[in-house]
Each structure stands twice: as C-alpha cells, then as structure tokens.
Amino acid sequence: MDLDLPEGMKRAGIADWQQLGAITAEAFYEDPVNRWIFGTPKTLDAIFPLLARTHYLKHGFCHIIGDGGAAMWLPWGAPSELSLSAIAQVAWTLMATGSPGAITRALEAGERMQAHHPKEPHLYLFTLGTRLANRGKGVGKALFAPVLAECDRTGTPVYLENSNPVNEGFYRSHGFDSLGHFPCGQDRGELKAPPLQMMWRAPRQSA
Fold first, then answer.
1. Residue 190 CB contacts under 8 Å (≥ 6 apart), including other chains
2. Are 29 and 41 in contact (CB under 8 A)?
3. What's the confidence (pLDDT) of residue 129?
4. In degrees rounded to 5, what are phi and psi of residue 179?
5. How many CB atoms lie under 10 A from the CB of residue 141?
6. pLDDT in tens, 67-79
7. Are 33 and 164 in contact (CB under 8 A)?
8. What is the mean pLDDT of residues 78-84?
9. Helix axes 84-97, 102-116, angle to 10 degrees
10. How far apart are CA 63 and CA 158, in angstroms?
11. 148's torsion region: left (phi>0), alpha (psi -120 to 50) or beta?
C-alpha cells in the first residue's frame, strides 16, 4: 500500500525488526490468548521480533510511531503461513523460553486461526498495539487512520482476530463488526483456552 503517513509515523524496514517486535510484545503482555500460548512476557519478547523479521516485514507491511506503537499487516495473496525456516526458529525459541506445552499450543492456535480465516479478499491485521506507557494517547488510532482510509478508497475489507475482550470497543469504533468467536485451542486442565473473536470491517463509502 502506498500510504500518506502522518508526521511521526513511518513504514518499518528490516532494520527495525527488533523495535517492531519489542513494541508488539509489550503491547500483548496482558493479552489472554498470547499468555495462554506462550506463558511469560519473556517468550513474547523473543517471539514477536522473530515473527516480524521472518514473515511480516518480508511479506507484509509494518508501521511504527516513535517507540510507542506498532502494527503489522498482511495483504491479500501474501503467504499466510510461516516458512519452514521460520517455524523451526519459532520452535527453538519456544523450547528455550516458553512454558511447558507452548509449541503444542502455538501450533494448535495457528491451525485454528487458519481454519477460520475468511476466504474473501481482504487486508489482514496481525497486530496493532502500543507500549504500556502509551495506552490511551491516541497512538492506536493514529496507526489505523492512514491504512483504513486507503482501504475505504480502494474498497478493501479488513480482517483481524481480537484476542482480548477489552479491545472490542476500540475495534468497533473503527468500523469492525464481530463474526463470532472460536477457542484458540483445547482446554488443558485448569489452563482454559480463551476465545479469539473474528472481526471484519467493510470499506466505508465516501460521502
């Protein structure tokens, strides 16, 4: 996407992979689904930079606002599944830093997300988040604005999985509607699998 970015917001390049991943990891420290899969913030700190470097910076596009917020997008037609090399790196990282069973939970969540992914052409939002100190300051709205404006201009729908119920209102305020929920995995004793909410935004017509 060729976007007119506001001042302070830039398209991330491959050299930004660590910062992009670090911002995203912190944004998801308290996220129910990511905590269920990975177990600890330490693992999120290792996984998100890896995903940024091996997949989303290669096949999608990503934005950063200072050191306060970041988003990762995947356009329609781009590979949705990680390469074998990336999968191997993720597995090694989970063995080194994750809680017991993290690899199994990650694979299970990935399979369920693929199974529920819409078949209609769309832009996919993988992550959008801010540093803890930047919450409530309009950073998330600023990250959304140029992309959603371009989607409205080109008639492109947007899809995301909401992994935290507290964020539903934020997404609805930007035009997303719920398509329902599915569990991110199987319950394992007291470790209950939280739901993922499928959300879809139809492009808005110009006035």
1. none
2. yes
3. 97
4. -105, 5
5. 13
6. 999 999 999 999 9
7. yes
8. 93
9. 140
10. 16
11. alpha
CA atoms of 104 and 101, how far apart (whole Å): 5
- C-alpha 128/C-alpha 200 separation (Å) is 15
The string of pLDDT tens digits covering residues 117-146 is 999 999 999 999 999 999 999 999 999 999
- For 55, phi then psi, to 5°, come to -135, -60
Q: CA 28, 31, 33 angle in degrees (round to 5)?
A: 115
- pTM, whole model, 2 decimals? 0.95
DSSP string, the chain: ----PPTTEEE--GGGHHHHHHHHHHHTTT-HHHHHHH-SHHHHHHHHHHHIIIIIHHHSEEEEETTTEEEEEE-TTS--S--HHHHHHHHHHHHHHSPTTHHHHHHHHHHHHHHHS--S--EEEEEEEE-GGGTTTTHHHHHHHHHHHHHHHHT--EEEEE--GGGHHHHHHTT-EEEEEEESS--BTTBPPPEEEEEEEPPPPP-
CB atoms within 10 A of CB 33: 23
CB atoms within 10 A of CB 6: 11
How many CB atoms lie under 10 A from the CB of residue 52?
Answer: 29
Q: What are 162-204's pLDDT values in tens digits?
A: 999 999 999 999 999 999 999 999 987 778 999 999 999 999 9
**Rounded distance, CA 16 to CA 77, Å?**
24
Q: How far is CA 8 from CA 20, 67, 145, in A?
A: 15, 10, 13
